[in-house]
Design goal:
Structural class: mainly beta
Number of strands: 8
Radius of gyration: 27 Å
Helix content: 10-25%
Order of helices and strands: HHEEEEEEEE
Distance between the termini: 70 Å
Strand order of the largest sheet: 1-8-5-6
CATH architecture of the domain at 70-186: Sandwich
CATH class of the domain at 70-186: Mainly Beta
Strand content: 35-45%
Largest sheet: 4 strands, mixed
Length: about 190
């Protein structure tokens, strides 16, 4: 059933107003950063957004920090706990990411994240499982930093596998190591 003409016109006018408000690039900026022009839609969208926390006025912007690339170590992407039909769990790394910040004396502090899957083997059962991960930084074939991280996850009682994510907040490499080779993998 079509809308009566006056209702259709009112709806079209309201939509036109909203679209005009969304598409306009002009208008004055108020101190809060919102456009001086207002419409029903812009007020509604503004109410849906959360305001970012104000930044401290004295905080200096962090300089660009070079960030060594991180890769999964060759042969370190999987780990089986047990052998043959006695495997209790198998871990597999799927992806790795990193983020860097400046440390003391020019060092580079790396936040490294990994994600993967843990699967129950024939000899395994649901519950808590863990495995050691090794992070290593080398430069000119010399190890310049290493760290062992314990990956812990829980396989739910009604599942035979679980996905995991781990973020390590503080792997530090010395100053001048932006071209280091950083790898992560299961100890093995």
């Amino acid at each position: 059933m079509p809308f009566p003409l006056s209702r259709s016109f009112g709806l079209a006018a309201l939509l036109s107003l909203g679209l005009a408000g969304c598409m306009s690039s002009g208008g004055t900026q108020s101190p809060s950063g919102t456009s001086g022009e207002s419409s029903l839609f812009s007020k509604w969208f503004a109410a849906q957004k959360t305001e970012p926390a104000p930044q401290a006025a004295a905080a200096a912007p962090e300089p660009d920090v070079p960030c060594p690339k991180v890769e999964i170590r060759e042969g370190g992407a999987t780990l089986r706990q047990g052998k043959g039909s006695d495997v209790s769990v198998q871990f597999s790394l799927r992806d790795v990411a990193r983020e860097c910040s400046a440390g003391k004396n020019g060092a580079i502090v790396m936040k490294i994240g990994v994600e993967g899957i843990a699967v129950i083997g024939k000899a395994g059962k649901p519950g808590g499982v863990s495995a050691p991960l090794i992070v290593t930084a080398t430069k000119n074939d010399k190890v310049i930093a290493t760290k062992t991280i314990t990956l812990k996850t829980t396989i739910p009682s009604d599942e035979n596998q679980t996905q995991f994510r781990l973020i390590d907040q503080g792997f530090t490499v010395p100053a001048g190591s932006e071209d280091a080779d950083v790898t992560i993998g299961f100890k093995g």
